[in-house]
Amino acid sequence: MSSPIRVLLAKVGLDGHDRGVKVVARTLRDAGMDVIYTGLHRTPEEVVYSAIQEDVDVLGISLLSGAHMTICPKIMKLLKEQGAEDTIVVVGGVVPDEDVAPLKEMGVKELLLQDTPPNQIVETLENLVAERGPR
Amino acid sequence: MNAPTDSKQLAALQEQLELWEKNEVDTFLRKQHEREEQFQTLGGFPVKRTYTALDIADTPLEDIGLPGQYPFTRGPYPTMYRSRFWTMRQIAGFGTGEDTNNRFKYLISQGQTGLSTDFDMPTLMGYDSDHAMSEGEVGREGVAVDTLADMEALFDGIDLENISVSMTINPTAWILLAMYVVLAQERGNDLNKLSGTIQADILKEYMAQKEYIYPIAPSVRIVRDCITYCAENMKRYNPINISGYHISEAGSSPIHEVAFTMANAVTYVEEVLKTGMDVDAFAPRLAFYFVCQSDFFEEIAKFRAARRVWAKIMKQRFGAKKPESMRLRFHCQTAAASLTKPQYKVNVMRTTLQALAAVLGGAQSLHTNGMDEAFAIPTEEAMKIALRTQQVIADETGIASVIDPLGGSYFLENLTTEYEKTIFEILDEVQERGGTIKLIEEGWFQKHISDFAYETALRKQSGQKPVIGVNKYVETEEDVDIETHPYDPTTAERQIERLNHVRKTRDEAKLQALLEELVTVAKDETRNIMPVTIELVRAGASMGDIVEKLKTVWGTYRENPVF
To answer: What is the pTM of this model?
Structure first.
């Protein structure tokens, strides 16, 4: 049996909305994944450092403050600089439709926005990790 | 009241009810089952097939009472909306002071009767607009305020003695209150004529909304200082808005929303009493804020029970003498978390029904959400429709002509009493487990909130909790023609320019002396932090100057998340 998928869930910046990220944390944990949640108000540097230290498959960033176009590019750049660009980055929260394409272009693999059913989140992550293959 | 109250009549009713179940109901059930085995409210209270006088037999008539009389179940005032409609208070805030000032003036021109201000994340968290943590956030989710100069722009041309102004602000509330005081003084206003509210409910931040800076003890002390300062200097001003709204939005059930709010309220009262202030000197200005969710009767029962519970707590536990200390007044907002992105126009109907429940529940002021809030902060057009929703309820339905028109409903009175009982049980449990602050530190409230949020997500997934457009009547291909509120990319630049101008023109030596005085006051828990803060903002101190200085005294709070 393969080892469980490792996920780091992160809240970056000043945004304190943590209802969604906690539901996701519990959903993924109940689905058998290893879940680490950073807690609130982290910097992009802290998050990327943890993702590398914890050797996670997936980095999930939760953002409901509208600051995603400021924060996501920083995280993607830091991952690349640290040679960790094979980390699968997924964004959840509130993101306007017009920002979806630019986020994917910068390397965000998937956006799981409000009202995504829990089982669909599990499925998406499993598929993304399978697509990436073993590392 | 003509309800059968003697045991003979009740026994006859009981018999009639049993026969009805056995005959009429049973015949129907053989033909067709009911939709559910067991119906329940959104908050999980079981709901019976129908309610009769038997269900209110245990509720003393004096607990139902009359409007404006203890225990205020039916409303805080004896005439309610017959004298004056609730305050229609749409929240607004984005960009700089000037930007939001324009929206305020528009809303006033459309018949809005109170102002409510949303601040951006840096202002809420005490960072100046040019701090690294503020990048991408300046003026985005609310208006940016760094210094008094921003407050001057925000309220330009608005007569503060003639409109009530609510400010949604928590860990930095006392600084904005200080700015408001100085602004009023500069204009020659009488502080005792100002009406309005700062939210300043820090305990629910640790529980739910998560906007905090300092550890709990100094944060509660700041709240205490706001309450005592206002009691002595601003007689008509509400120094706190004890809020369930954010507890609910973070995922809690309605019963936990109201019970946890009461637990927080009790804690604040206890803290102020420790200063030696008489309960009747400050309790009349304690205000509340609840959400109105989608379960119609449950929400109305929640509001009625909250009033009854608060009245009993203030009278019995704290020995309040004035009726004003016992009557709970609340602002209400419809539930943002109930809004959907798919088929977003349906949000107007959701909001209408929630607003109706808020009015039937006796709210003092109301914000109705914009239909586009699942996308971004609302546009002017969305806010207008939301405001019109309230105006239709007020002017066209006739429900404001009678006070508590649902009072006496067997179901509603029963649910109100169930709510009251459960709230007191939860408050007892909180006390037995060591009190509100200890339980916040242990994550006890947070766990209850996240449990219910998780259950709600699963119920939506299974369809057990229907959400139109999301898990029922879904349209696979939706043409979304929505214009959302645009973010002006020049906001941060404009904001920082003003901040730098203030920094250049202020008396730096005076400011530094005042910051040292702030440290002295902060270290002496018996002193009130308001007067020195007022002098600081008058001298051009920014929010960041004050907040960072106090971090050197108190440190910061970091939660241990539970899920």
So the answer is: 0.95
CB atoms A67 and B209 under 8 Å = no
Chain A residue closest in CA terms to B375:
A96
Q: What is the pLDDT of residues A11-42, one digit of tens each?
A: 999 999 999 999 999 999 999 999 999 999 99
Question: Does any CB of chain A come closer than 8 Å to the CB of residue B474?
Answer: no
Q: Which domains does chain B have, with CATH numbers?
A: 53-84+231-429 (3.20.20.240)
Distances (CA, A) of B20 to B23, B354, B466, B471: 5, 34, 31, 36
CA dihedral (B347, B353, B354, B356) positive or negative: positive
The interface predicted TM-score (ipTM) is 0.93
User: What distances in angstroms separate CA B201 from CA A123, B113, B341, B376, one per listed residue?
Assistant: 40, 24, 30, 25
The structure tokens listed for B469 are 């457009």
Cβ <8 Å between A23 and B249: no
Average pLDDT over residues B397-414: 98
Q: B150: closest CA among B125, B128, B132? A: B128
Axis-axis angle for helices B444-462, A118-132 (nearest 10): 90
Residue of B nearest to A116 (CA): B461
Averaged over B176-194, what is the pLDDT?
Answer: 97
* Domain architecture of chain A: domains with CATH: 6-132 (3.40.50.280)
Distance CA B317, CA B322 (A): 14
Residue numbers in A near B127 (CB within 8 A):
14
β-pairing verdict for B237-238 and B196-198:
parallel
Please determine, for residue B232, whether its predicted confidence score (pLDDT) is greater than 90: yes
Q: How far is A22 from chain B (nearest CA, A)?
A: 6
Chain A, 96 to 115: residues with Cβ < 8 Å from chain B are 96-97, 113-115
**B556 shares contact with chain A (CB less than 8 Å):** no
Q: Residue A116's pLDDT is what? A: 92
Share of chain B above pLDDT 90, in %: 92
